[in-house]
């Protein structure tokens, strides 16, 4: 019996499959960079630099001195996290169970790890200012989310090029937007969907409903994130970076007392806000939402 299960549960086969599934299942990948440069390097913390823009160039008259500015930067330290999920399978479940328990375990372990990383990414956005970053905000908390409110929030970017963005809203805010005549639902622009879960668009911002957006003190904080840098600055830094310390590690342990196999997967990672200028946090009232 154990020999049969050892053949079915092969860490060398399952781990690469979960790693591939993990990257695809992380919903923030359209605007977050996946960085694997930490793999194999020692240390449990990383330091992330954040540079401030030096401003546009000056016009200098012939023979006049040019003024120099200093390149300023701040840094933030992030501690590497370890996300873990385990599943215990009985021999009966594997050999006589409905469907493919081992394959389903493989699938759900990837989703579980991705879900935790997604939650950390959303927390990094919503709580950016509380963690010491300087993220621009729009206060529309006096009223519910609306087309005009979102457009005003987008204007806070003060951009010359209206680059594509993603905006995360609560499922409880969806009905309010869908009843707005200016809302463009995804079925009206065909197959040009870029973000997983995208339901529509307002002002070049792709609207994504996420249960991870929850009200606090009667207010929703909805992150709006640029999907790429502004062309006039040549900035291609991502708003968020997910540093993967190593690939998915999968281990199994056989329990002969009850004839079960324990399958555990873990991922060491860091989610860091690497470009605060690509984020605007818009606040809207939760009072009229259907909770």
Features:
291 residues; alpha+beta; seven-stranded mixed sheet; five-stranded mixed sheet; 6 helices; 14 strands; 31% strand
Structure write-up:
This protein is of the alpha+beta class. It is built from 6 helices and 14 strands. The chain has helices at residues 2-8, 11-25, 91-96, 101-126, 147-155, 171-178; strands at residues 32-35, 45-51, 73-79, 81-90, 136-140, 165-169, 184-185, 198-202, 205-209, 219-226, 240-244, 249-255, 260-273, 279-285. It is globular.
Briefly characterize the structure.
The protein is of the alpha+beta class and 291 residues long.
Helical element count? 6
Largest sheet: 7 strands, mixed
Point out poorly predicted stretches.
none
> What level of helicity do the residues show?
10-25%
**Strand order within the widest sheet?**
5-14-10-6-9-8-7
* SS strand fraction: 25-35%
Shape: globular
Output the radius of gyration. 23 Å
Question: What order do the helices and strands come in, and which of them pair?
Answer:
Elements: H1 2-8, H2 11-25, E1 32-35, E2 45-51, E3 73-79, E4 81-90, H3 91-96, H4 101-126, E5 136-140, H5 147-155, E6 165-169, H6 171-178, E7 184-185, E8 198-202, E9 205-209, E10 219-226, E11 240-244, E12 249-255, E13 260-273, E14 279-285
Parallel strand pairs: 1-11, 5-14, 6-9
Antiparallel strand pairs: 2-3, 4-13, 6-10, 7-8, 8-9, 10-14, 11-13, 12-13
Helix pairs in contact: 2-4
């Amino acid at each position: 019996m154990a020999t049969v299960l050892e053949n079915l549960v092969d860490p060398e086969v399952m781990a690469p499959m979960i790693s591939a599934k993990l990257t695809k299942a992380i919903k923030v990948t359209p605007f977050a960079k996946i960085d694997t440069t930490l793999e194999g390097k020692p240390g449990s913390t990383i330091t992330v630099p954040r540079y401030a823009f030096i401003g546009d160039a000056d016009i200098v008259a012939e023979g006049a001195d040019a003024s120099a500015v200093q390149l300023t930067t701040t840094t933030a330290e992030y501690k590497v996290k370890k996300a873990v999920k385990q599943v215990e399978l009985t021999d009966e479940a594997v050999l006589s169970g409905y469907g493919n328990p081992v394959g389903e375990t493989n699938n759900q372990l990837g989703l579980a790890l991705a879900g935790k990383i997604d939650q950390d990414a959303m927390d990094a956005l919503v709580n950016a200012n509380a963690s010491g970053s300087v993220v621009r905000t729009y206060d529309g908390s006096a009223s519910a989310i609306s087309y005009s409110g979102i457009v005003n929030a987008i204007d806070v970017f003060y951009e010359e090029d209206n680059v594509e963005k993603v905006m995360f809203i609560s499922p409880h805010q969806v009905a309010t937007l869908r009843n707005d005549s200016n809302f463009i639902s995804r079925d009206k622009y065909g197959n040009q969907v870029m973000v997983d879960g995208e339901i529509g668009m307002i002002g070049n911002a792709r609207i994504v409903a996420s249960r991870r957006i929850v009200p606090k003190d009667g207010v929703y904080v909805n992150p709006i994130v640029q999907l790429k840098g502004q062309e006039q600055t040549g900035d291609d830094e991502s708003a968020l970076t997910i540093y993967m310390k190593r690939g998915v590690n999968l281990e199994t342990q056989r329990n002969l007392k009850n004839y079960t196999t324990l399958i555990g997967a873990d991922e060491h990672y860091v989610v860091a806000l690497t470009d605060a200028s690509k984020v605007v946090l818009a606040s809207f009232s939760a009072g009229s939402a259907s909770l």
